[in-house]
Amino acid sequence: MTTATTTTTTMMKAIRLHAFGGPEVLRYEDAPVPALKPGEVLVRVHAVGINPPDWYLREGYRMLPPAWQPPIAMPAIPGSDVSGVVEAVAPGVQGLAVGDEVFGMVRFPSYGDSAAYAEYVTAPASDLAHKPAGISHVQAAAAPMALLTAWQFLIELGHDHPNPLQPQMHRPVPIAGKTVLVNGAAGGVGHFAVQLAKVKGAHVIAVASGAHEAFLQGLGADEFIDYTQGAPEAVARGVDLVLDTLGGPTTGRFLQALKPGGVLYPVFPLGYTGADEAAQRGFTVSATQVRSSGAQLVQLAGLLGAGTVRVAIDSTFALADARSAHERAARGHIRGKIVLTVR
Q1: Rounded CA gap, 247 and 245, in Å?
Q2: Mean pLDDT, all residues of the chain
């Protein structure tokens, strides 16, 4: 039985930005603890996962077409991925209670409303799941966005919201017994995609730099292509599905690696213009926008807790050092995820 409670804490430390720009605009400062709304819980944050949308917000979404750039109220707190302990529960919330350890991706997609780089965050109860007992808060905070992205692209979309990236809904195809190539396999989405594809019975080709070969083989990759030694699309042949975690204008190069009827999923499809040509050639190119889903995280928590899917941590930084964490992200070549820790 859940019970509502309130916290007497009114102020917290948070990372806020008052203007758009580079990592230097991230300020560690006092901020009000967010007010609890119906259907929400207040989480005392132990760790925060860092994701590309965090720096998209910090930069003012300059990577989006001007018509897509949303207005952002300042000061803004970035971040969406958290793991922590429930501090308070709004009346009527079922399934979560004060003291529960939880993790989730909060209010995504949203623009400046997730506010996870903080000591406290409010979250819709439907965005959260109980943290698996077998993993730490750091590992749990690293998982939600990247793991849900891999799951929703490859396994189950899990919602019926309109797709802002294309006219039709994204429909994952069965991958058991198929050959799946993951580009950017050592990164956040990539290292989860390798593992999920293996869980679902695919033959997995991992593409990354040579430094990550042993790491990815340890996660179950059947083949490895070092992109620094030659174009992976020129090496791989007869692939059923490519998950390009980098995407962008050059993602169409992977069409030459596909067998007839093959599928290309660019995680970042902006800039790609060849969908019609691909369709004429018998290929499917499809993308989606990852969305918060506590229900899917409940399923994934079982895989995480059992060690079937493992979380790789590139590096950790204290919340106050969020600027350094963003500078680390900007240097690239990340293995797994970057995480902020909160005292």
Answers
A1: 6
A2: 95
